[in-house]
Amino acid sequence: MNSNKVLDAKGLACPMPIVKTKKAIGEIESGEVLEVHTTDKGAKNDLTAWAKSSGHEMLKDTEENGVLKFWIKKG
Amino acid sequence: MNTITGLNKMSPNELAQIVFQKEELFIIDVRNESDFNDWRIEGDKIEIINIPYFDLIDGVDPALDKIPNNKKVLVVCAKEGSSQFVAEKIVEAGRTNVFYLEGGMKAWSEHLEPVKIGDLKDGGSIYQFVRIGKGCLSYMVVSNGEAAIVDTLRMTDVYEQFAKDINVSIKHTIDTHLHADHISGGKKLAEKVGATYWLPPKDATEVTFTYEKLEEGKNITVGNTTITIQPIYSPGHTIGSTSLIVDDKYFLTGDILFIESIGRPDLAGKAEDWVGDLRNTLYNRYKELSNDLIVLPAHFGKITELGEGGKVSARMGDLYQKNPGLNIQDEVEFRKTVTENLPPQPNAYQEIRQTNMGKITPNEEEQREMEIGPNRCAVHDK
What we know:
The complex is a heterodimer. Chain A is of the alpha+beta class. Chain A has helices spanning about 15-25, 45-55, and strands at about 5-10, 35-40, 55-65, 65-75. In chain A, about 30% of the residues lie in helices and about 35% in strands. The mean pLDDT of chain A is about 95. Chain B has two domains: about 5-110, Rhodanese-like domain (Oxidized Rhodanese, domain 1), CATH 3.40.250; about 110-370, Ribonuclease Z/Hydroxyacylglutathione hydrolase-like (Metallo-beta-lactamase, Chain A), CATH 3.60.15.10. Chain B has helices at about 10-20, 35-40, 60-65, 80-90, 105-110, 155-165, 185-195, 270-285, 315-320, 330-340, 350-355, 365-370; strands spanning about 5-10, 25-30, 45-50, 75, 100, 115-120, 125-130, 135-145, 145-150, 170-175, 195-200, 210-215, 220, 225-235, 240-245, 250-255, 295, 315.
């Protein structure tokens, strides 16, 4: 899946993946896609809930070798 | 521990004391809404609100408005990091008496608090280990330097340390049934300390390891005095479920009978088959026993079931008067109550059963994840 920006949040513990995601999404335009990589398992529920409450769209998420990837479309 | 200024860490042990002593506490749970709705800290005088941490990253004003001025405040999250982050901001905003929970809900879920239930005739004692965050109860029967543990939880080091502290050696670990809500530590602990692991054979048809058969007529002796543990076959939650009478006085009912509810028959996928067994156990078998037995279940469902000092127990005769699950005279209505509109199943209950049979061996982190959430073993649990 294509993205306009990639955020590497691997190795960071909660709440940093979301703190950084929030900052990164502020740097792209509405309709563009942010790709987030993290190793924090809790990030899945939290990012999904955060995206929903902030009006962004979680397009897709994958998990491979302990790395979770998310594609979030800015609302 | 009264008014402390600045930011403080609260341990699960300190929180357990607040719950047991029914002290006041204001909790801000900063996990996401679905996790909060699924499972949260409860206590008699605990007030709790949910504001996800990601709504507090740019500022904690939404939380500040809701925090009462004179109360001790605890911020809670899944693991610790986010609660510390939020608690720091609350302190920076000038609030005092602010704490965050050490290890978060993960540590709370694993915390075990030993409570002495009473003495045995020949000088021994029985202890209840309250896993307050998940509602699991396990027991240690000690007599004359020996101990038997019933429904051992995964955190086996707690029992080992406790046994060491009171100078007893663990000789038996007993599971009243094959558990579906938590991973048993019985086999693991028995192997480590050279004890005998007991399990009802009818629950063990698929297990991959050796065990001793827990059956009626095979009493277990603790110490060289005559503290006996007498198994009573009492199917219904599982087909093998076996209750234990300790020292003719204490009645360990496993997941068959709780204080304010009864066990659910559906966690092995055989609700329809096992309803009759459950009915017979509760309305016939148990009725033949003394009303003066002290019932000690393997779970509590509601925080209101915690009595003095955190103890969860009740007299058998009182339960026959008050427990709604023991007062459904109509068999059809009973069947409906225990098979329809049941609460959701415990998290990962199928994988947990597989683990307890020895069929799969998840690592520690995976086991922890599997056990997240409440036990949900009673029919009346929400």
